[in-house]
Design a protein that fits this description.
Elements (H helix, E strand, L loop, with lengths): L1 H17 L4 H27 L5 H18 L8 H9 L10 H9 L6 E8 L11 H4 L17 E2 L2 E2 L2 E7 L8 H5 L2 H12 L11 E3 L8 H11 L1 E7 L5 H8 L6 H14 L42 E5 L4 E5 L30 E4 L3 E5 L4 E5 L6 E6 L4 E5 H8 L19 E8 L2 E2 L7 H10 L8 E10 L3 E10 L4 H4 L7 E7 L4 E4 L5 H14 L8 H9 L1
Parallel strand pairs: 1-4, 1-6, 4-5, 6-8
Antiparallel strand pairs: 2-3, 7-8, 9-12, 10-11, 10-13, 11-18, 12-17, 14-18, 15-16, 16-17, 16-19
Helix pairs in contact: 2-3, 2-11, 3-11
Length: 552
C-alpha cells in the first residue's frame, strides 16, 4: 500500500515540476495557447456576424492547441485504493453512513445564496427510500401552495432557505415505454403526499421528476433546470439509490465548447502557478475545497456497492455559475448483511422484470430469495395472486415447508442466497391489509370492453378484487391481489374482518413496507394479450389424415 502511495506522490511531483518538459517549452505552450484563445474568441464573434468557410480550419487548429495546453496543465487525477477496488473489483470496505442532520451541517457551509436539494428516490422500492422528515431536518421551503400569489422565497437567519425537487430514478423498472411511466406520475405524487403528510387541497407538489439514466428519459429537462438555477445543487438520498448515476446523466455539460476552451485557457494562464497542486485545507470546514472547472470534469464513481460516496464531491459547472455536490448516502437498512457475498449483487434490480403471476392457494406461502422473505395469508380460504417484481427467486410451497425452510430445517430446492446464520433472525415484519379496491382494473374482458367503448358504469358484481404492494427494501416489490365476496351492504364490506390480510416474515422483522398498488402487471398482461391476438390462427387439420393415423 505504501509503495502505491509513494508512486502517486512521485507522479504528482513530476507532473508539477516537469510536465511541460522544460521551462522554455512550457512558456512556448502557454503563449501558443493564449494566441489560440484570442483566435477562438475573434473567430466566434466574426462567425456570428459574417460566416466564412475558411474559419472552420482555423477554429479547429486553435481548439487543438488550446486543448493540448489544458491537458498538459491539468492536475493528474489520483485514484485511491477504495475507488480502485470499486471500479475494478466491485468491492469496498463499508464506512459509517451520515444522518440527515449531518447533511444539514453541510448545507450551512454552502457558499451559494441559492441552493436546491435534489432528493433522489429509488423507483424499485418507492417510497421506502424517501426521507419523510426532510423538510424539517434541512429547513427547506415549504412546497408551493395552490395560491399563485404566495411568496416563493423565504428567509431564516439572514439566509435564503433552500428549495427541493424529488427525483425518482430508475423509472424504466416500472414499465417498458416512456408513456406508460408517464401515466403513473399522478400515482407517484399521491403516494409522496401521503408519505410527507401533505394535504392534497393545499399543495400542488409539482417538483417531482421521474427519470431513467439508463434510457435517457426526462434527463434533458432536469439538466436544463439545473443549468438555469445555478448556485448549489445538493444531491441527497439514501445509499445505492442512484445519486452518482443521476449526476452522470444530468450534469449540465457546457454546449459552447469553443468559448469554454478559450475561457479556461485565460483562467489557467492567469493563475500565479498553474502547476501548484497543494490545496490549503481548512480544519474547520466540512466541505472539501472547490476544484477548478475543467474541460472534462471528473464525475463520481458509479457502483452497485452501497456507500460508494464517502465524502462530499464538488463539481463546478457553467463558468463558475454553480456546482453540483454529491453527498454520502444515508442509511438504507442492511438487508445485504443477511445475503451471501457471491449473491449480494443479485439483490439489486438492474433490468425491468416481466414476472408470471403466481397463485398462492390456501395452505401455501410465497418464499422469496430462498427464505429471505415469506408471505402468508392470514385467512386460510383466500387465494392470493402474486406478481413478484424482484430480482430474486420466488417459490410457492406449503406453509409448513416454508416455515422449515426459513428456519434452516429443510433444504431449499432452488438456489439459496441467504446466509446460514440469518435463519435465527427471521421474525414477523407485521400484518399488512389488502385494503385497496382494484376491481375496475380486473374486470372480465367483455365487461371491460363495454365500459370502455360505451362509457357505461361498472355493473354491480358479486365479488371485489383487493390489492396492495409489499415492498422489499432496496430489492423490489410484490403486487398482491385477492378476490373476495362483495358484502350485501356497505357496513359488512367495510368491516375490519372482511379486509384480507397477509403476514410477512423477514430478518429481524425489518426491511418490509407497503403502499397502494401501482398495478404495473397490467402493462405486462395487456402486452401479452396483444401479442396473442397478433398470432396467426392454427390451420384446420385434415380429418381423413387424422383418421388414417388412428387406424394405423
Amino acid at each position: 500500500m505504501w509503495k502505491h502511495v509513494r508512486k502517486l506522490i512521485s507522479e504528482s511531483q513530476r507532473a508539477a515540476n516537469d510536465k511541460p518538459g522544460s521551462a522554455e517549452e512550457g512558456s512556448d505552450l502557454r503563449s501558443e495557447a493564449e494566441k489560440a484563445a484570442s483566435t477562438i474568441l475573434k473567430l466566434v464573434d466574426s462567425e456570428v456576424a459574417t460566416p466564412k468557410a475558411k474559419h472552420g480550419a482555423m477554429l479547429k487548429e486553435a481548439a487543438t492547441t488550446a486543448s493540448h495546453f489544458l491537458e498538459n496543465t491539468r492536475a493528474p487525477a489520483q485514484v485511491c485504493d477504495r475507488c480502485h477496488d470499486l471500479i475494478h473489483h466491485n468491492k469496498a470496505v463499508s464506512v459509517p453512513t451520515p444522518t440527515i442532520y449531518s447533511i444539514q451541517e453541510y448545507l450551512k457551509e454552502s457558499p451559494h445564496r441559492d441552493n436546491r436539494i435534489y432528493h433522489v428516490i429509488d423507483a424499485a422500492d418507492f417510497p421506502m427510500s424517501l426521507v419523510d422528515n426532510i423538510y424539517d431536518a434541512l429547513s427547506i421551503q415549504e412546497p408551493r401552495s395552490r395560491n399563485r400569489r404566495a411568496s416563493t422565497e423565504k428567509y431564516r437567519g439572514g439566509r435564503k432557505l433552500p428549495t427541493i425537487s424529488f427525483v425518482i430514478t430508475r423509472s424504466d423498472l416500472l414499465a417498458a415505454t416512456k408513456e406508460q411511466v408517464d401515466s403513473k406520475m399522478e400515482y407517484v405524487r399521491s403516494v409522496l403526499r401521503d408519505a410527507l403528510k401533505l394535504s392534497t387541497d393545499q399543495f400542488r407538489l409539482g417538483n417531482v421528476h421521474m427519470i431513467s439514466a439508463h434510457r435517457g428519459w426526462w434527463t434533458k429537462q432536469v439538466k436544463e433546470d439545473i443549468r438555469e438555477h445555478g448556485g448549489g445543487i445538493w444531491v441527497v438520498g439514501k445509499t445505492n439509490v442512484g445519486k452518482s448515476s443521476f449526476i452522470e446523466a444530468c450534469f449540465p455539460k457546457d454546449s459552447r465548447n469553443l468559448e469554454k476552451i478559450a475561457e479556461l485557457v485565460e483562467r489557467r494562464t492567469a493563475e500565479s502557478d498553474i502547476n501548484q497542486l497543494d490545496v490549503s485545507l481548512s480544519s474547520d470546514s466540512l466541505l472539501p475545497p472547490a476544484p477548478r472547472e475543467d474541460l472534462y470534469p471528473v464525475l463520481p464513481v458509479v457502483s452497485s456497492v452501497p456507500g460508494t460516496t464517502v465524502s462530499p464531491i464538488r463539481i463546478p459547472f457553467g463558468h463558475g455559475r454553480g456546482e453540483m455536490i454529491d453527498l454520502p448516502g444515508l442509511d438504507r437498512g442492511q438487508l445485504l448483511n443477511y445475503v451471501r457475498d457471491e449473491h449480494k449483487r443479485d439483490l439489486t434490480m438492474t433490468k425491468r422484470k416481466k414476472p408470471e403471476r403466481l397463485t398462492v392457494k390456501p395452505g401455501q406461502s410465497l418464499l422469496l430469495g430462498g427464505g429471505l422473505v415469506r408471505i402468508t395469508a392470514e385467512n386460510p380460504d383466500h387465494v392470493l395472486m402474486a406478481a413478484c417484481f424482484v430480482p430474486i427467486e420466488a417459490h410457492v410451497t406449503k406453509t409448513e415447508k416454508a416455515v422449515e425452510m426459513q428456519a434452516g430445517q429443510r433444504p431449499y430446492p432452488g438456489e439459496q442466497i441467504m446466509r446460514d446464520e440469518a435463519t435465527a433472525s427471521i421474525s414477523s415484519a407485521g400484518v399488512f391489509e389488502l385494503k385497496w379496491d382494484v376491481t375496475r382494473s380486473h374486470l372480465p374482458t367483455s365487461i371491460a370492453k363495454a365500459v370502455e367503448d360505451h362509457g357505461i358504469p361498472v355493473p354491480r358484481l358479486p365479488y371485489k378484487v383487493m390489492s396492495t404492494d409489499i415492498l422489499i427494501e432496496g430489492c423490489g416489490w410484490v403486487e398482491l391481489t385477492v378476490q373476495i365476496r362483495a358484502g350485501s351492504n356497505s357496513e359488512e364490506s367495510e368491516s375490519p374482518s372482511s379486509v384480507p390480510r397477509v403476514e410477512v416474515f423477514s430478518p429481524n422483522g425489518q426491511h418490509i413496507g407497503s403502499r397502494p398498488p401501482i398495478e404495473c402487471w397490467n402493462f405486462i398482461a395487456e402486452k401479452r394479450a396483444a401479442d396473442k391476438r397478433r398470432r396467426p390462427s392454427r390451420g384446420r387439420q385434415n380429418v381423413g389424415r387424422k383418421r388414417r393415423a388412428l387406424q394405423a
